[in-house]
Amino acid sequence: PVGAPDKALAKKVTKVGIIGAGLMASQFALLFVRKLQVPVLITDLDQSRVDKGLAYINDEIDKLEAKGRLDGDAANRLRALIHGTTDKTEYADCDFVIEAVFEEIGVKQQVFAEIEPIIAEDAILATNTSSLSVEEIGAKLAHPERLVGFHFFNPVAVMPLIEIVKTPATKDAALSTAFVVARGLGKNAVLTADAPGFVVNRLLAKVFGEAARALYEGTPLLTVEKAFEPLGLPMKPFQLIDLVGWKVAAHVQDTMANAFPERFYANANFHALAELPQVVEKDKAGRVTGWTKDAQRVLKDAVGS
Ligand code: 3HC
Asked: Which residues form the 3-hydroxyacyl-CoA dehydrogenase NAD binding domain (predicted)?
């Protein structure tokens, strides 16, 4: 791939560590274990969060088994490869550690500060930040040369892209490992500049912001969705916002508005929307099937127009 250093420089990954056990982290754990077939460790602040992550992963493995995508033995092998704990010392033998914690610079710096003294000197660190500066996330590391941005998309199992981000400090071994890992996960990787929103969220923030803006201006929600159809994309703006999460979408808006105030809306109303996931109807699998009858009213109240 363009910008990828020689793959001979890549470090062999024999155990993966994931920091966090939320939905994104759990999706990563399942993907890593399925595709790389190596032990995967997940941790979180307390055991109940870890257990919730493990339950999600086991449930997804059950579904794959029920669909006939995995036989019983393969499913059991995957289950056995995933380990959840609150004990961070277990990162000691991980070669590739990716964080999937709250999208805030201080939180990301903090979790890396906690594990850097534990991991091997040549272990690679990756951040799944969606719009923060990777260089800033690595600013407090003793070895920032081992940090790369490794940005997945929702749903992690199916979206084919990973944005890989290099900082001025990132060494070729880390970058090369990231590209080889991405390929092992069956994804296409692109190298992007370490600029707010990288490429995809920069484009998406425009779509989300303009869709919300059209709503405030009085265009009904379903009309905004309908108007998007000719573009032929798999999801319409508000469906996509619901998929990534209303709060995450609002957070991305904020990051972009702070970074480029002249180009993105600082949209307080977006946060009002973020409190309103009840505007969508979902099927049992949690996918959006439509809008509640009173979606328009609820949204109108939220945006105050
Ligand atoms: N988890 C795991 N697998 C899922 C899934 C999920 N949440 N949602 C769908 N899938 C799988 C289904 O199981 C199915 O797999 P199968 O063919 O093996 O049975 C396959 O995806 C297709 O699903 P469906 O047929 O049910 O549904 P669609 O054909 O409508 O596709 C979609 C669903 C893949 C989600 C499609 O609508 C799509 O591509 N949407 C766009 C998503 C997108 O743009 N994501 C990027 C968001 S931005 C982001 O994440 C960045 C962040 O930083 C904010």
From this structure: 15-194
Q: What is the CATH code for 200-303?
A: 1.10.1040.50
H/E element, 117? none
Over the stretch 234-280, which tens digit does the pLDDT of each residue have? 999 988 988 888 888 888 888 899 999 998 877 767 777 777 777 88
Measure the CA–CA gap between 239 and 249, rounded to whole angstroms: 12
Six-digit token string for 255: 């990051």
Which amino acid residue places its CA nearest to atom 48 of ligand 1?
153
Q: Which of 153, 158, 206 to mutate to test the pocket of ligand 1 (most atoms within 8 A of CB)?
A: 158
- Rounded to two decimals, the ipTM of the complex is 0.96
Q: What angle do CA 136, 140, 146 make, to 5 degrees?
A: 80
Structural class in CATH, domain 7-192: alpha beta
**H or E segment and range at residue 110:** helix 105-115
Domain boundaries, the chain: 7-192, 200-303
Per the confidence metrics, is the pTM higher than 0.95? no
Q: Known catalytic residue: 151? A: yes
Task: Determine if ligand 1 sits within 6 Å of the CB of residue 3.
Answer: no
